[in-house]
């Protein structure tokens, strides 16, 4: 579920709003709220609503506003919402419509009697609710989700950290925990609280429990503590519930303003654990080359890799009634052992050798060559990873 610009203009706190331009972009998703001055001084307002007062715009010339429009378009903001002054009329609205006509966002005008405080509160609530946050969570835990799930400028991050009572000398790390099957996340949250005490924050969202771990120790000791805590929590959960639990532990940054990056690295580690065949806890710092492969910005490359390897095998099997996909997958899983692959697939040793020769003939992949084997191994890893990401 997501809140869009169309949803926004239907809310009671937006009563009397006018669409100045950008009607074709009302389906754009909203992820957060940014104030005009913050948006002009930072490049992190993607998919956010930028809130401005007409007086703030008055200091700019038409060419200045055109440049701001280009900047906001590059930042991919969702909408620019302007609270109009009494002195502004339809002439100003027309001028703004002309200035921002070619921009990639919607421009909305609010009447001068709209109260900004309820608008900000209402919009923040709708964003939190739309993104699946649990509104019954304590205030600090919703602050945690606000802090890590939405891109913010440095000052905003520091404000949230201060509101949560986090000291400036603390190191922070995000841990994501996901159980398999039906489990009451409230019970899991209670157990996590018993482990953390007052030394962290917990929130749950879409079947996953998120923990912010804290430590005032020096950096290497803090990282060691976070690792030990994560392993201890994983062991305890498995013993209590007798089922699989998967954990992704993010990188510990030396600067608190990088906490969102810790969350994103934990998310990458969790998805890697879910797609792995033998690991139920993965530390982002241990992922090696997979940090690059599974990076959130590399999704296009992953899909292309999957298409060039796994999808080619599947398509060929479908067209020619062969079993090359199953064969290569088993070969990879068995660390390129023909004997173990044959045993897993219940076929003769020579059958696998024959298929390997045909695969080289049809696809050009030499399954006795290290580089080709690594290439195909990563292709299957990409398939597993993208499947888990889609389901989560």
UniProtKB/TrEMBL annotation:
<dbReference type="InterPro" id="IPR025736">
    <property type="entry name" value="PucR_C-HTH_dom"/>
</dbReference>
<dbReference type="Pfam" id="PF13556">
    <property type="entry name" value="HTH_30"/>
</dbReference>
<dbReference type="Pfam" id="PF17853">
    <property type="entry name" value="GGDEF_2"/>
</dbReference>
<feature type="domain" description="PucR C-terminal helix-turn-helix">
    <location>
        <begin position="326"/>
        <end position="381"/>
    </location>
</feature>
<dbReference type="InterPro" id="IPR042070">
    <property type="entry name" value="PucR_C-HTH_sf"/>
</dbReference>
<protein>
    <submittedName>
        <fullName>Helix-turn-helix domain-containing protein</fullName>
    </submittedName>
</protein>
<dbReference type="InterPro" id="IPR041522">
    <property type="entry name" value="CdaR_GGDEF"/>
</dbReference>
<feature type="domain" description="CdaR GGDEF-like">
    <location>
        <begin position="154"/>
        <end position="270"/>
    </location>
</feature>
<comment type="similarity">
    <text>Belongs to the CdaR family.</text>
</comment>
<dbReference type="InterPro" id="IPR051448">
    <property type="entry name" value="CdaR-like_regulators"/>
</dbReference>
